Amino acid sequence: MMLYKQGRFWVEGASFQIPEGFYIETDPDVNYERGLAAWDPTRTHLYLWAISEEEEEGTKEALEEMTKELKTLSPPAPITLNGLPGHWMTYGGKTFQNYEARFALNDEEQLVFIVEGGDNDISKIMESPEFRSALEGIRAD
Questions:
Q1: Is the pLDDT of residue 56 over 80?
Q2: 15 pLDDT above the threshold of 90
């Protein structure tokens, strides 16, 4: 469950906002149980914000575990964003490239931010104002 207040979605320890002009995904098969998904204004790239329970893993270890069978495009790197520490990386398969960042909320939960780039170059998506707005909208609270 998330609280929506003052244009932001709140979870324990953090909040995020979905950028202006994004389309909220309403398909329950796309959304995580404890998360939200939205398409960018061109409806080309899917952005996901979710809470993940990782009882024994840090953000770097969780990324490595979740992507161990995929092609690493950039290895996990530390990130601190608006007071939230974590790690990010890019990875892909034959027909897709994704960006994923994980931020530690407490000892057991992480805020996960994923951008699904499809068959597009994820590094170009990361340069877009939509990506920057979505990423920079995450903060510790």
A1: no
A2: yes
